[in-house]
Amino acid sequence: MVRTQIQLTEQQARKLRARARERGVSVAELIRRCVETVLSVEEPSRAELYSRAARIAGKFEDRQGAKDLARRHDDYLDEAFE
Fold first, then answer.
1. Cys-Cys with 44: which of 48, 52, 54, 62 at CB 3.0–4.6 Å?
2. Are 29 and 20 contacting, i.e. CB atoms less than 8 angstroms apart?
3. Among 40, 42, 21, 41, which Cα is nearest to 30's?
4. Using an 8 Å Cβ cutoff, are 20 and 12 in contact?
5. In percent, how much of the chain has pLDDT > 90?
6. Alpha carbon of 7 to those of 4, 25, 72: distances in Å?
7. CB pairs under 8 A, 24+ apart, for 28-34?
C-alpha cells in the first residue's frame, strides 16, 4: 500500500466516519472502496462523445423559440449552466 494524505471538509470527514461506522470498516477502507469505484467506471472516448452529440443535434425544438442556435449555441449553453 502507498500512504497518501488528503484534505477533507469537516462535513465530508463527518459523513465518512459515520458511513464507515455503519459498514463496520475503517475510513481508509471506505476511501479505498470509493476510489476503486470511480476508477472502475469506463469513461466514453472523445470520439464516442462527439458521436452521441451528433446523433441528437437538431432533434429537439427550442422551448424559447431561439432561431440562432447554430450561431449562439455556446452562449445558450453558458446560460443553461448558470
1. 48
2. yes
3. 21
4. no
5. 52
6. 10, 20, 40
7. 31/6
